[in-house]
Amino acid sequence: MRLPHWPHRRIDPAAAAVAVLALALRVPLLVAALPGVGNSDEPLNVAVGMRMASAGTLDPHSYRYPGLVYEVVAGVASAFRAVGVHVSAHGAMRIENLGIAHTDSRLLMVAIRLVGAAASVATCLLVWAAVRETLKRVGVPESWGRGAAALAAATVAVSPLATANSAYATPDVYAGFAVALTLYGTTRVLGEARYGTLLCGLGVGLALGAKYLAVAALPVVVAYAMSPGRRKDLLKVAGLAAVVFLATTPAILVHPGAVLAGMEAEAIHYETGHVGAEGGAPLYYLNALFRDQPLLVDATGVAVVAVFRTRGLIRRTLIAGLAYAIPQFLLLAVMAVRFDRNLVPLTPALAILAGIAVPTMIPHRHRRAAIAITVAVALFPAVAAARLYPRLDEHARVQAAAWVSRHIPADQPVAVESYGPWLDPARFRLVPLTFAADRPTVEARALILTEHAAGRFLAAPADHPRQTAAYRELLTRYRLAARFTAGSWIEVYVPR
User: Fold this and answer.
1) Rounded distance between C-alpha atoms, residue 113 and residue 91, angstroms
2) Nearest CA among 126, 153, 135, 183 for reference residue 321
3) 162-172: per-residue pLDDT in tens?
4) Dihedrals φ, ψ of 329, to 5°?
5) Fewer Cβ in 10 A, N or C end of the chain?
6) Where would you find the membrane-spanning parts of this chain (predicted)?
7) pTM for this one?
């Protein structure tokens, strides 16, 4: 296999502008909320990776996710120690409850998050490259092709969902990068570039290693099926993908039963439900996509139409992209559990479809007006992305913790729901509650309810009558003492 011959040796100003835009939106979020860590997944992921670094092993002994995100954390921690920076395995992540954690090493957390931010920016550039190379190969004018590629990449750069998730040590951002790499590889396969095989193998292997995302292999199979002379290379892709997956999740060789059990447990979780985040998945995901980046929802419909109205490379590329986007969305839609972060690996695929289909389908006589509208719709989410910091910083948690410290005597019981403030466990007798409705008889000097816990039930009482009734019963014994809204709301109650 020949090494890749990169078609652009100079940095394209349009691509550089997209990268700068993406970085400008993501870099401030690297320090959001620190030293508090409020994401539900990030604390456990960091704790597992730190345990790997301390033990000097590649086995995380946790298989809810494959190993890529854990290896990133372990790699950053090992690099810190290699240059003499002390990193405490215990202090790096102190977990109090779901969505409540604290770090004693802000620099370590920033470095770990920086890797995810870099992967997110690289995702934007891969979208740009996939669209740019495809349109160039079919003879689209230079300025038109570069503009379409830059706009497609910008939809991911300004996506609030992609931006927010780039700031967490979670697998979604790496899965998005893997999908973008895979789809760029399929465009190279369809464009008859020999290094397409290498890119596809790396992409599929990373998709498996990031989030068991086997559906990422479908566009590769479809691309090779439409390239009769290269079908034998599909075996090379499979072999390379297997090697990459084994490198990220070596436990599949030594503890296959445990890895499969972890995969099964996560599948059961998504099939059986998650309190407050279940039901109506198809409409939920469509609404989430439309709120995040409305252009991509509309452009996907344009791409479906374009499959029947175009031919040649454009048509084959759209078919390959849809071979991932449609099954991935359907897979999410049939699950009982729904989280908007699951759309992060879907967004780059929709952006590539949009960048290729929209220029093809815009009539020449309406081109200027269509371009103006498209640019406006594509960049409008940048406003929401630029306002992410206050929401992710969750200053309400700091305010609530300060209020409790001022008004509640030491050594008193304080009941704290998930996603609440971090309180000093040496000062208070903490009573951690996933949801206060699960323990309506709890006795405490202060009770802290949160939007991400109690709020999910109280905002939809008809959907959660049992939990709503439990909260109402609980609040007959407590009165509201303070409320904080800098971020998600947090309420502090004291006994009546």
Assistant:
1) 17
2) 183
3) 999 999 999 99
4) -65, -40
5) C
6) 110-131, 143-161, 173-190, 196-222, 234-253, 317-337, 343-362, 369-389
7) 0.93
